[in-house]
Amino acid sequence: MSLTLPPITPAPMPRAPRSVLQRLRWLISDSWNVASRDLIHWIRQPVRLFSSVMYPVVSILIFGYVFGNAVMVVGGWNYREFLMPGLFGQSIVLGVGVTLVAIAEDTNRGVNNRFRTMPMSRAGYLAGRSIADLLNSTLDIVVLMLCGVAVGWTWHLGFGNVLIAFGLLMLLRVAMIWLGIFLGLIIKPENTSVVWTVLLPLTMFSDTFVSPQMMPEWLGTISEWNPLSATVGAIRELFGNPGWPGDSWVSTHPMVMAVVWPLAIIAVFWPLSVRRYRSMS
Asked: What is the topology of this protein in the membrane according to its UniProt annotation (predicted)?
């Protein structure tokens, strides 16, 4: 007796949402799924977690205690009061490398192509990557703040200003995320080390650790116009920490430039990243 099996009918592909509300729900769901994937990868790599936590401690020890005694701050302030906002900003900018490496590895392994062929929001992958990086950066800043409090740093102008300063840091991180996404889509994983060699000097060519007035004139000008200098100067004002007053317009209006610079970077690299992602074969 022969047994006849019924024909196998493939499952129908889910329909793409049509209304604006349905598309928004689709985007939020897919973005969180991608972000959860990235966070799980991060948690399951203890070396990355350890390095993320240890970096603030090592930075404070090196710059706060090794070099700090050689730097005099205007007004007789403790150098670590001047240093900590600079370390907050440096940590945010160095996050470009984290985003870049993750995007480059996904591109090299074909993960991006797999997501693009799945029935999911076209913006879900990039948005999910952004959410994961923002959460990681939030943890980094919290750890840095706790380390700063442990060595004598604090804020002096109220918790409301702390929230505004944190918002400015996250705004800069969003700008760095889109810069990192664009670079990650065009750079191969084996070439990402070149970006790290450029990032660290760029964070030094700012008022992160010393005043631009202590640098050669041409380097001091570059430092004053560095987007990192604007954010660091702004959060120093919000925290009530000491800074270095400059003579140029950009150095005397850090609050304005701390918003203008990140928005300008986002306006350039957001559309470039989306266009590059959509045009990938």
From this structure: Multi-pass membrane protein
